[in-house]
Design brief:
The chain has helices spanning 2-22, 28-42, 44-51, 57-65, 71-91, 95-114; strands at residues 68-70, 116-118. With 120 residues, the chain is mostly helical.
């Protein structure tokens, strides 16, 4: 029963992560990393699929096994996050929404900058 629950949460997390690629309010990275964790606990097949995925696989491996990101991946992540969240920030009229988005941006930015920079 526990494995099924983790599997369902893993699937939901992947979906939210993929949506987060194009929707600036949802952060992609935490959802994909959560999916990797949940699939590791519930489905070795889906965990392996996620690790061998050409988009997310190397990124997940660097983050989970080597505790860092390459300089290139940091730049890409920060650039995409800045563009996406910047667009959302300026499109949003609600002051509280802007503050919330800015807090998420700063939290993720600080986390990315604190990560160890890996060599290729």
């Amino acid at each position: 029963m526990k494995k099924k629950f983790y599997f369902i949460l893993g699937c939901i997390s992947v979906i939210l992560g993929v949506i987060g690629i194009v929707l600036p309010l949802l952060p992609t990275t935490p959802f994909i990393l959560l999916s990797a964790f949940l699939f590791e606990k519930s489905s070795p097949k889906f965990h392996q699929l996620l690790l061998t995925n050409k988009i997310f696989g190397k990124y997940i491996e660097d983050y989970t096994e080597r505790n860092g990101l390459t300089y290139k991946n940091k730049i890409i992540a920060i650039t995409i996050m800045t563009l996406g969240m910047g667009k959302g920030f300026f499109a949003m009229q609600n002051v509280y929404g802007r503050i919330f988005l800015l807090m998420i941006f700063l939290g993720v930015l600080i986390h990315l900058l604190k990560l160890k920079t890996l060599r290729n």
